[in-house]
Amino acid sequence: MSPHQRREDLIATALRVFAERSPDSVTPEDIAEAADVSRTLVYRYFPNMTELRTAALRSAMDELAPMLVPPSDLPLLEQLRTALRAFIDFADRYAPAYVALLRGGSKVASDHTESVIDEVRDQVLRLLLQRSGIEHPSPRVLLAMRCWISSVESALLIWLKERPMSEAELADWLLDQLLAMLGASGAGEVELEALTATIGSADG
Protein backbone atom coordinates (compact mmCIF):
# COMPACT_ATOMS: atom_id res chain seq x y z
CA MET A 1 0.00 0.00 0.00
CA SER A 2 1.44 3.37 -1.01
CA PRO A 3 1.83 6.16 1.58
CA HIS A 4 -1.14 8.00 0.05
CA GLN A 5 -3.29 4.87 0.13
CA ARG A 6 -2.26 4.14 3.71
CA ARG A 7 -3.16 7.65 4.79
CA GLU A 8 -6.54 7.44 3.07
CA ASP A 9 -7.15 4.06 4.66
CA LEU A 10 -6.47 5.48 8.12
CA ILE A 11 -8.87 8.35 7.44
CA ALA A 12 -11.56 5.92 6.25
CA THR A 13 -10.99 3.81 9.35
CA ALA A 14 -11.31 6.88 11.56
CA LEU A 15 -14.62 7.77 9.89
CA ARG A 16 -15.96 4.28 10.55
CA VAL A 17 -14.95 4.53 14.19
CA PHE A 18 -16.33 8.06 14.54
CA ALA A 19 -19.68 6.84 13.16
CA GLU A 20 -19.97 4.60 16.23
CA ARG A 21 -18.21 6.58 18.95
CA SER A 22 -17.68 10.23 19.77
CA PRO A 23 -14.29 11.33 18.38
CA ASP A 24 -13.27 12.77 21.74
CA SER A 25 -13.25 9.25 23.19
CA VAL A 26 -11.21 7.71 20.37
CA THR A 27 -7.44 7.22 20.77
CA PRO A 28 -4.69 6.43 18.25
CA GLU A 29 -4.68 2.93 19.70
CA ASP A 30 -8.34 2.54 18.77
CA ILE A 31 -7.62 3.59 15.19
CA ALA A 32 -4.63 1.25 15.00
CA GLU A 33 -6.72 -1.67 16.23
CA ALA A 34 -9.57 -0.93 13.82
CA ALA A 35 -7.15 -0.60 10.89
CA ASP A 36 -5.14 -3.62 11.97
CA VAL A 37 -1.90 -1.68 12.01
CA SER A 38 0.56 -0.61 14.67
CA ARG A 39 0.11 2.49 16.78
CA THR A 40 3.48 3.68 15.48
CA LEU A 41 2.13 3.65 11.94
CA VAL A 42 -0.84 5.80 12.94
CA TYR A 43 1.51 8.33 14.56
CA ARG A 44 3.70 8.35 11.46
CA TYR A 45 0.83 9.78 9.43
CA PHE A 46 -0.98 11.67 12.17
CA PRO A 47 1.19 12.90 15.05
CA ASN A 48 -1.91 13.71 17.11
CA MET A 49 -5.64 13.08 17.12
CA THR A 50 -6.43 16.68 16.22
CA GLU A 51 -4.79 16.21 12.83
CA LEU A 52 -6.59 12.92 12.26
CA ARG A 53 -9.98 14.36 13.29
CA THR A 54 -9.49 17.31 10.96
CA ALA A 55 -8.46 15.08 8.05
CA ALA A 56 -11.45 12.82 8.67
CA LEU A 57 -13.79 15.81 8.83
CA ARG A 58 -12.40 17.15 5.58
CA SER A 59 -12.95 13.77 3.93
CA ALA A 60 -16.52 13.62 5.26
CA MET A 61 -17.27 17.15 4.04
CA ASP A 62 -15.92 16.26 0.60
CA GLU A 63 -18.39 13.36 0.62
CA LEU A 64 -21.24 15.61 1.75
CA ALA A 65 -20.68 18.53 -0.63
CA PRO A 66 -22.09 16.95 -3.83
CA MET A 67 -25.06 15.58 -1.88
CA LEU A 68 -26.13 19.15 -1.10
CA VAL A 69 -26.46 20.03 -4.79
CA PRO A 70 -29.83 18.63 -5.94
CA PRO A 71 -30.83 18.43 -9.61
CA SER A 72 -31.68 21.91 -10.85
CA ASP A 73 -34.64 20.67 -12.89
CA LEU A 74 -36.60 19.89 -9.72
CA PRO A 75 -39.07 22.45 -8.34
CA LEU A 76 -37.41 24.73 -5.81
CA LEU A 77 -39.17 23.14 -2.85
CA GLU A 78 -38.02 19.68 -3.91
CA GLN A 79 -34.48 20.91 -4.38
CA LEU A 80 -34.42 22.20 -0.82
CA ARG A 81 -36.10 19.08 0.54
CA THR A 82 -33.64 16.83 -1.30
CA ALA A 83 -30.65 18.74 0.07
CA LEU A 84 -32.10 18.67 3.58
CA ARG A 85 -32.77 14.95 3.47
CA ALA A 86 -29.19 14.38 2.32
CA PHE A 87 -27.84 16.47 5.19
CA ILE A 88 -30.06 14.71 7.74
CA ASP A 89 -28.95 11.30 6.43
CA PHE A 90 -25.33 12.39 6.66
CA ALA A 91 -25.68 13.67 10.23
CA ASP A 92 -27.48 10.47 11.21
CA ARG A 93 -24.73 8.30 9.69
CA TYR A 94 -22.04 10.14 11.64
CA ALA A 95 -24.19 11.04 14.64
CA PRO A 96 -21.55 10.75 17.41
CA ALA A 97 -19.09 12.88 15.43
CA TYR A 98 -21.76 15.40 14.41
CA VAL A 99 -22.85 15.91 18.00
CA ALA A 100 -19.26 16.18 19.25
CA LEU A 101 -18.34 18.77 16.63
CA LEU A 102 -21.34 21.05 17.07
CA ARG A 103 -22.15 20.89 20.76
CA GLY A 104 -20.79 23.67 22.91
CA GLY A 105 -17.57 23.07 24.80
CA SER A 106 -16.54 19.93 22.93
CA LYS A 107 -12.80 19.34 22.91
CA VAL A 108 -13.15 17.87 19.42
CA ALA A 109 -14.00 21.26 17.93
CA SER A 110 -11.03 23.43 16.98
CA ASP A 111 -10.19 26.35 14.74
CA HIS A 112 -9.34 23.84 12.00
CA THR A 113 -12.61 21.92 12.24
CA GLU A 114 -14.60 25.14 12.52
CA SER A 115 -12.99 26.38 9.30
CA VAL A 116 -14.03 23.22 7.46
CA ILE A 117 -17.59 23.46 8.81
CA ASP A 118 -17.77 27.13 7.82
CA GLU A 119 -16.95 26.13 4.24
CA VAL A 120 -20.02 23.88 4.20
CA ARG A 121 -22.18 26.65 5.67
CA ASP A 122 -20.96 29.02 2.96
CA GLN A 123 -21.72 26.41 0.30
CA VAL A 124 -25.27 26.04 1.59
CA LEU A 125 -25.74 29.81 1.61
CA ARG A 126 -24.47 30.11 -1.97
CA LEU A 127 -26.75 27.29 -3.05
CA LEU A 128 -29.78 28.93 -1.42
CA LEU A 129 -29.08 32.22 -3.17
CA GLN A 130 -28.29 30.64 -6.52
CA ARG A 131 -31.28 28.32 -6.68
CA SER A 132 -33.71 30.92 -5.31
CA GLY A 133 -32.68 33.49 -7.90
CA ILE A 134 -31.86 36.17 -5.33
CA GLU A 135 -28.86 37.91 -6.92
CA HIS A 136 -28.60 40.89 -4.57
CA PRO A 137 -29.90 39.83 -1.16
CA SER A 138 -30.47 42.45 1.48
CA PRO A 139 -28.55 42.20 4.77
CA ARG A 140 -31.79 41.07 6.43
CA VAL A 141 -32.26 38.21 3.98
CA LEU A 142 -28.63 37.14 4.32
CA LEU A 143 -28.94 37.17 8.09
CA ALA A 144 -32.15 35.14 7.93
CA MET A 145 -30.50 32.51 5.72
CA ARG A 146 -27.45 32.27 7.96
CA CYS A 147 -29.66 31.97 11.04
CA TRP A 148 -31.68 29.25 9.33
CA ILE A 149 -28.52 27.27 8.57
CA SER A 150 -27.62 27.50 12.27
CA SER A 151 -31.13 26.42 13.23
CA VAL A 152 -30.80 23.34 11.00
CA GLU A 153 -27.64 22.37 12.86
CA SER A 154 -29.27 22.92 16.25
CA ALA A 155 -32.46 21.10 15.31
CA LEU A 156 -30.43 18.10 14.20
CA LEU A 157 -28.64 17.96 17.55
CA ILE A 158 -32.03 17.66 19.25
CA TRP A 159 -33.41 15.26 16.65
CA LEU A 160 -30.44 12.91 16.90
CA LYS A 161 -30.91 12.70 20.65
CA GLU A 162 -34.70 12.57 20.96
CA ARG A 163 -36.09 11.55 17.53
CA PRO A 164 -39.36 13.44 18.14
CA MET A 165 -40.45 13.07 14.51
CA SER A 166 -39.54 11.21 11.35
CA GLU A 167 -36.76 12.32 9.04
CA ALA A 168 -39.30 13.44 6.43
CA GLU A 169 -41.26 15.43 9.02
CA LEU A 170 -38.07 17.10 10.21
CA ALA A 171 -37.15 18.13 6.66
CA ASP A 172 -40.63 19.58 6.07
CA TRP A 173 -40.55 21.42 9.41
CA LEU A 174 -37.18 22.95 8.58
CA LEU A 175 -38.51 24.10 5.21
CA ASP A 176 -41.43 25.76 6.99
CA GLN A 177 -38.94 27.54 9.25
CA LEU A 178 -36.98 28.81 6.26
CA LEU A 179 -40.07 30.21 4.60
CA ALA A 180 -41.22 31.86 7.85
CA MET A 181 -37.81 33.41 8.54
CA LEU A 182 -37.47 34.73 4.99
CA GLY A 183 -41.00 36.07 5.06
CA ALA A 184 -40.26 37.99 8.26
CA SER A 185 -36.92 39.31 7.09
CA GLY A 186 -37.73 41.40 4.06
CA ALA A 187 -41.40 42.02 3.39
CA GLY A 188 -41.81 43.93 0.17
CA GLU A 189 -38.50 42.88 -1.39
CA VAL A 190 -39.23 41.77 -4.95
CA GLU A 191 -36.75 38.88 -4.97
CA LEU A 192 -37.98 37.58 -1.64
CA GLU A 193 -41.61 37.77 -2.69
CA ALA A 194 -40.76 35.73 -5.80
CA LEU A 195 -38.96 33.14 -3.70
CA THR A 196 -41.72 32.71 -1.14
CA ALA A 197 -44.32 32.56 -3.91
CA THR A 198 -42.31 29.82 -5.66
CA ILE A 199 -41.93 27.77 -2.51
CA GLY A 200 -45.49 28.35 -1.43
CA SER A 201 -46.99 27.35 -4.76
CA ALA A 202 -44.83 24.24 -4.94
CA ASP A 203 -45.86 23.28 -1.45
CA GLY A 204 -49.48 23.57 -2.31
UniProtKB/TrEMBL annotation:
DNA-binding region extent: 27-46
GO molecular function: DNA-binding transcription factor activity; transcription cis-regulatory region binding
Signal sequence range: none
Entry-linked Gene3D superfamilies: Tetracycline Repressor, domain 2
Annotated keywords: DNA-binding, Transcription, Transcription regulation
InterPro entries, A to Z: DesT_TetR_C, Homeodomain-like_sf, HTH-type_TetR-like_transc_reg, HTH_TetR
Residues in HTH tetR-type domain copies: 4-64
Lineage: superkingdom: Bacteria
PANTHER family referenced in this protein's UniProt entry, alphabetically: HTH-TYPE TRANSCRIPTIONAL REGULATOR RUTR, TRANSCRIPTIONAL REGULATORY PROTEIN (PROBABLY TETR-FAMILY)-RELATED
Name of the protein described by the UniProt record: TetR/AcrR family transcriptional regulator
